[in-house]
Amino acid sequence: MNTIEKNVAKHLLEIEAVKLSPEKPFTWASGWKSPIYCDNRKIYSYPAIRREICEYFKTIIEERYKDVEIIAGIATGAIGYGAIVAEMMNKPFIYVRSSAKDHGLQNQVEGILPQGAKVVVIEDLVSTGGSSLAAVDALQKNGAIIEGTIAIFSYNFDKARKGFENANVELYTLSNYDALLDEAVASNYISAADVEMLREWRFSPDTWGRDK
Known about the structure:
alpha/beta, Rossmann fold, 6-stranded mixed sheet, 10 strands
């Protein structure tokens, strides 16, 4: 676990942006039972942590995507992060809706996106990867060249990994489920006995906990 992964995992636990509850699972909109719930929008309410997260984004973009021309945020959770990072880097900012508006100009991509512009996509959370990849697809259809996608946190699902691989888009995350579990045990947030159950969920989230 690198320093960024550890620091971000620690912050998520500290501010309860991530909640772990293996004994009383959460139910996601998809119907999946989950021992974890992640809401990275809480970071916005903590200026020091918000600034640190955006500095990490900036550093990684400067290291990995030197040719970036535009920063894109995915609605709604990542619009704020994307806008802050774009400001820090003095880059144009655009954002991507989950679907095109049904009125006005019926845009899905908001802002100025020239044909062939090199774009880095910022996301707050990657679960199955479906919504993130739909945003990437919308950007590509509007003429963008995707340099990569960076998210605050990922559950490390195989489905997401394979989806990004098949789309030929690099996914980089500041922290992830494995780093979070390590930090949760180290900080006594959960017991070592809970770890096996929590790791088990990650590999079969669609069927886990159905009898709970």
